[in-house]
Amino acid sequence: MAFEISSNGTAAQLSDTSVGRRAVTAMERIGIGTSGLIASRIALGTWAIGGWMWGGTSDLNESVQTIRSAVERGITLIDTAPVYGFGRSEEIVGLALSGGLRDRVLIATKVGLEWRDGKVWRNSSAARIRQEVEDSLRRLRTEYIDLYQVHWPDPLVPIHETAGALARLLKEGKIRAIGVSNYSPEQMAEFRKAAPIHSVQPPYNLFERSAENGVLPYATRHDIAVLCYGALCRGLLTGSITARTKFEGDDLRRNDPKFQQPRFSQYLAAVASLDRFARERYGRGVLALAVRWVLDQGGDTIALWGARRPAQLDPVADAMGWALDDDAKKRIDEILLRTVKDPVGPEFMTPPSRDDSALAA
Predict the structure, then answer these.
(1) Is the pLDDT of residue 157 over 70?
(2) pLDDT tens digits, residue range 3-23?
(3) I need a labelling partner for 233 at 20 to 30 A (CA). Which of 39, 47, 173, 313 fits?
(4) Average pLDDT value for the chain
(5) Is 183 one of the annotated active-site residues of the chain?
(6) What is the C-alpha to C-alpha distance for residues 278 and 286, in angstroms, rounded to an integer?
(7) How far apart are CA 174 and CA 145, in angstroms?
(8) pLDDT at residue 18 in the model
């Protein structure tokens, strides 16, 4: 089916079209903490589908087909957020899952980011959470959210207030599991005094590994699933980006230090070396290697795989059904040490806290 989003933000059906089927027969699955929910170890990330910070709005029909194609390939966890396109991503997810697919997937969305005139800031107050959950349920066309995640910790709101608000939603049945994103172990410990945590979502990939210093060990100790966002490092680890690649509009990579020289050349050299190693050792490309690395770090890890077109999901099967041994992990680390001399993390993506004076203006 083809669709459009009308001027008032609702979705309307236009016409029928086919959605390709390429099922993954050996998709690995994992439990989301102690929630009882079982998800595929590959989750579809839909930030880019929303358009915001990815160079503009994506094609709606293609976005719907991408989500449906992901389900047909065995992906059962769809990750979105209200701020991705300021509601657009959630609307597209709801639209794509209408007509029978909703019961085949888990929807993970987020809460705690507010926006106005394209500017985003953190707000995890109980009142904001209550408003957001109703808005998300409407956009997603569902009666419940499977995994509800606090997008960023809010330094202006006590953690127990945020946690208590989610605990109430869990009790009411509006959500089935609670997650946090970008939280430190200390913040998670405080949160768990008022509510359970079933998942944590940190940035984690071959190039961005600060989660290893605290978040991953904490999650393992407390039976918390880890949804690793940026598993392909904003496309760097797909192997499709070159020194000639241009990023247009509001694409966040225009401000990402990894995509600026001289670091850009270092990271591209690392990708090239990793690709050669993956092909020589496993007969697979760097993309499959990068995803497999995330899945093989121990603990209950899930890799978020962002896509805007169905074809971008074609390599999903290449990441399933094998594992990296310790020697391979050592070789990967040696490649990174040799090529990336000036590493940098994803700190540039951190949204600001609320500035009441600025908002009043």
Answers:
(1) yes
(2) 344 333 334 343 333 333 344
(3) 39
(4) 89
(5) no
(6) 6
(7) 6
(8) 36
How many beta carbons lie within 10 A of that of residue 295, not counting itself?
20
Residue 308: both structure tokens together: 């805007």
Task: For residue 248, report the phi and psi dihedrals to the nearest 5 degrees.
Answer: -110, 165
- Integer angstrom CA distances of residue 62 from 96, 103, 141, 182: 10, 22, 19, 30
Q: Note the pLDDT tens digit of each residue in 238-272.
A: 999 999 998 887 787 888 899 999 999 999 999 99
Q: What's the token pair of residue 27?
A: 């998709």
What is the model's pLDDT at position 253? 84
pLDDT value of position 353: 81
Residues 6 or more apart in contact with residue 221 via CB below 8 angstroms: none
Q: Could you tell me if 74 and 30 are in contact, meaning their C-beta atoms sit under 8 angstroms apart?
A: no
Residue 215 has pLDDT above 90, yes or no: yes
CB distance 218 to 185 below 8 Å? yes
Cα 281 from Cα 151, distance rounded (Å): 38
Residue 113, strand partner residues: 122
Kindly indicate the confidence band of residue 57, based on its pLDDT and cuts at 50, 70 and 90: low
Catalytic residue among 84, 204, 218, 267: 84
In this prediction, residue 346 carries a pLDDT of 87
CB within 8 A of 333, min separation 6: which ones? Answer: none
